[in-house]
Amino acid sequence: MIDDLKGKRILVTGSSTGIGAAVAKAYAERGAAVAVHYNQSKEPAQALLAEIKAAGGTAILIGGDVSKSKEAARIVDEAAAGLGGLDVLVNNAGALVKRVPLDDIDDEIYDRVLDLNVRSVVVASQVAARHMRKAGRGSIINTSSVAARNGGGPGALLYAGAKAFVLNATRNLAKDLAGANIRVNGVSPGVISTPFHERYSTPEILEGMRKTIPMAVIGTPEDCVGAYLFFASDKLSGYVTGQVLEVNGGQFMA
Q1: What structural domains does the chain harbor?
Q2: Is 110 annotated as catalytic?
Q3: I need a surface site. Which of 29, 153, 154, 225 has the fewest CB within 10 A?
Q4: pLDDT tens digit sequence for 159-190
Q5: Which of 225, 217, 95, 108 is nearest to 166 (CA)?
């Protein structure tokens, strides 16, 4: 049992649904105080907040668009203020936005994808590190994707490239922040059954992806939770930084 998360102050961006929601709930179940963040999905976020509190957990709710620098900074500062500090940041917010073939990529879709998946990680990490330096330690956990390794599915050029940035930024940040006693690691989910694929993948695309998975099943958000718990725990991963853990049923093996 992971027993050192009690009292940890954790912000999970993009935690209204999917992997983020499962991770926020799991942290709260282990005694952490959690900031649940949403942008458009306010009702699911409110429902998660109520569920955490009903179970005796501690949580606050923060809304905002992490793709905008000022908003991303505000969200992190608001989480730290509301929780009394910040021990763990999970940069989970991200999306494919839409599948776009090469010929249809324009500045608008380029900016939307890169701002959401790259800018948000840079700004949130920058601001979180300031709070963690004050505390003398911290952990940043970035959500990458198997798309960073295999190029992603059809029309996912920008998303796959953005997630490859997140993967390598994790390594750079780990080096940069090690002197401040801040660990930086990442989780790289494979094909996971979330609203992400409900929006962006047809049943045919999903079936094609499933056939590339040695375990022959599509994962669930709960399948990803253990990796995030591991990286948040100093007891379990206190000497681990700059690592990206693949959670994909064997679809990609590093």
Answers
A1: 9-238 (3.40.50.720)
A2: no
A3: 154
A4: 999 999 999 999 999 999 999 999 999 999 99
A5: 95
